[in-house]
Here is the input.
Amino acid sequence: MYGVLNDRNIYYLARISDKAKRFLTRELRRHGLQGLAPSDGDIMVALFKRRQLTMKELSGIIDRDKSTLTGLVDKLARLGYLEKKTDPADRRVQIVSLTEKGGRLIPDFITISLKLQEMFSRALSAHEKDTLVNLLKKVHDAW
Amino acid sequence: MYGVLNDRNIYYLARISDKAKRFLTRELRRHGLQGLAPSDGDIMVALFKRRQLTMKELSGIIDRDKSTLTGLVDKLARLGYLEKKTDPADRRVQIVSLTEKGGRLIPDFITISLKLQEMFSRALSAHEKDTLVNLLKKVHDAW
DNA sequence: ATCTAATAGTTTGATAGCAAACTAACAAAG
DNA sequence: CTTTGTTAGTTTGCTATCAAACTATTAGAT
Here is the structure.
């Protein structure tokens, strides 16, 4: 459905995105992080940057349905990487944060992420990379 | 994992790709094509263009694992949209083709695909669209 | 001709992901 | 206060997807 006619934009985009996802999954495994998926990394990095976030905030940041997030966060909590506690000020809200064990994984995520960047941009000049990110941002923001 | 540091290329790329997928899924449903996913459309459009393809060829074209393809093709055959038969010249090979019932869905796929293109490019000038597809192609081919 | 290796496809088992329906807690209005 | 609506999150049911192990068939080498 991505490239029915002559406009191959989305076709390339979707295939690159799939390749990136598979790349990340393989790399996570290679680092001994079996059972972790790219979205798990996104969650943990977001918490590394922001210290603590609600389920709703996380859902927005990683762009996944709230029901998906419930599953991921519960798994990461079960593995000891995250902690989830009810906000005393509003008992509907769950506040999620990294544990120390979770924090120790961040360097791995950074390493893998840099490797992905390299895969991505090895065919592009610095200027082309700039152009590309600007165009992608435009499309993203206008959706 | 897509946007750990400052390089947001892949972050935008992945989010746009996800949005596109969800958009397609919703549109397929709106057209009464419940139970069909974007990949199903890719398979059927590929067969519309090329008449008949082996499982291996299809797997390459839609960029999905062969085991994934088995499931999708079998489902589409069960629904009467595809036909699968053993190649008499090499009995390992399965030759897949559209049925007439399957062919009747093609106009819907084209309509939906055009709508997606519009979502995608409404923030871009014609020149920007060109630039973007060229850069994406470069990244894609170099992976 | 007969092993051995390569190839095409399927099966199995597991996970990420969505949507819809649900529960619980809070907010607002009278 | 109590009803009514809104918001945060969870549960349930289903599909796409991959990887690894498997089967069946063909090709190649001696």
